[in-house]
């Protein structure tokens, strides 16, 4: 066992330990490398965010240790060795792990670059396999890359960052430790002791927690089912998981597999039991929604999938942009909400607003305005008279003061619609989250036919791209989400409102509409439903386990017919991102020691309960312990910030606003400043 030397009293060395070498850990090290290479105050051209630091960097030699049992750069989720049938859920032009490299600057001076720059450069000099190179050449800006290819990009950026650090005389490292960190404790001589799973102890002046997805304790129901299955050979239960951790080969060919969840993990499962088992999709020459036919290999299981809404997430539109071009938010703006908060709009805390009273009415107006403007452009013939007169009246109605209440302008709008579009109801984007509302009970055969029709319609609309009024309205909702994220991160939306309203109904709404899979996945899914490889349960299904029969059963109260049975059940979802139920030895240790604590949130009835993330303070996200004081030099980045940020799992946007789409990079920079500035 390697023994560490205690340098805790060595005032001549600045020691930084970054725990987690995936994308967020790489972002922090990239910012450290840029600053260490300059060895001066932060140069304005290099800054992502404005700051008043004004000071020089710490003059001490720097030692950088990075701890992660998975490869540096890609980490656990983006393993380049995973199945190539697993896709990213963001298009090539969007994600980055570092600021885009300036034009004309070489890799030695600026190892950071976006994935789109990596694609356009043909791999930026990386040693790629023939398969990787072919995949890269086949991508366009709106294509969805294979996840292992993105992992190779992440490793390439890491290699450049590490080489830059290694070339500096005053830097020792980065030293990569391929193991887990199991605890972080204050050291009697100052700084911290970071204990590794190998038994080695690292001493640090600064610690950065960038641990990403970690195991979580499952619910009592899931634990009971898992325990029952373990004691009854023949029944198999797969709890919530990261897709790279699942042995998909174990799922039996030709047999039923019950699946709970039709989000992104479901589409990973779908691809792995079809494409990865030799099945293939053939083009039919038919329209979007009917363009593919599945040719089975005979090795597929039968997936019987369910979700609360009874449908998967909607397909992403065929638009090579994160926010569709032409989207304009006229009513819901960042400045308008900040002004309202600062003038005392009635959030429960001073300087805050309430989401449902102050944010949603404005965003909903922009969604409605977008829909009807796009409908007028795409299908002017559906209007009784010229669309322009209706659109002028629409703008006048929507521009009414917000304090008159939704019911007033909605009634006026319905009256205008009765004259301009008498056969259509008011567009209600929230109703899209309840696709089967009002349908009542239905037979299994009728539900299957309705599901096929719904999926076909979804693909057909998504394939229209910016020509789809529906998807442009969803694009407006998505643009609003990015502003909501900023407002939450900066504390302008009341925390109770965030918990009850944003997370309660707005997050499921926008995730289900704007964060769905590529439309190719829905096209594939409907082909698999037609082929009998996938069956979809109705809304609000319930799952049970019969220990005596050693069988799982599922049933929807909205769909009649026999209850499907299976000896396998898969929870197609990620582990819960809640630090209070974490199964990470590291997080459990720092919570138990009092170095950190969950951030408390207050429910609508005033009860204090643990929030999902850690309690932090400042732009550099220093952990707050049970004493109520922030730890000097222990910083958090990523998923464990979910109590103070919303949407922490989304990658940074290449070239995005550091206050909005590229906030992860801004967070990494703020932490690097705090670590290095004297």
- Cα-based radius of gyration, to the nearest Å: 26 Å
Show unreliable segments. 1-9, 40-45
Which outline best applies?
A: globular
Which percent range fits the helix content?
25-40%
Integer average pLDDT: 90
> Which structural class should the secondary elements be placed in?
alpha/beta
Count of helices?
A: 16
Number of strands: 24
Strand order of the largest sheet: 4-2-1-8-23-22-21
Bin the strand percentage.
15-25%
Biggest sheet descriptor = 7 strands, mixed
| C-alpha termini separation | 35 Å
Assembly annotation: single chain
Walkthrough of the structure:
Helix 1 packs parallel to helix 4 (147-166) and helix 8 (355-378) packs antiparallel against helix 9. By secondary structure, this protein is α/β, with parallel strands linked by helices. The longest helix is centred in the middle third of the chain and has 24 residues, at 355-378. It has 16 helices and 24 strands. It starts with 13 loop residues before the first strand and ends with a helix. It has helices at residues 23-38, 115-120, 130-138, 147-166, 220-230, 264-272, 334-342, 355-378, 387-398, 406-420, 444-463, 469-489, 495-514, 519-531, 585-593, 663-676, and strands at residues 14-19, 62-67, 95-96, 171-177, 181-186, 192-196, 201-204, 206-209, 236-238, 256-260, 280-283, 292-295, 302-306, 534-536, 542-546, 551-555, 565-566, 568-571, 598-602, 608-614, 616-617, 622-624, 630-636, 652-653. It has a seven-stranded mixed β-sheet with strand order 4-2-1-8-23-22-21. Strands 9-18-10-13-14 form a five-stranded parallel β-sheet. A three-stranded antiparallel β-sheet has the order 5-6-7.
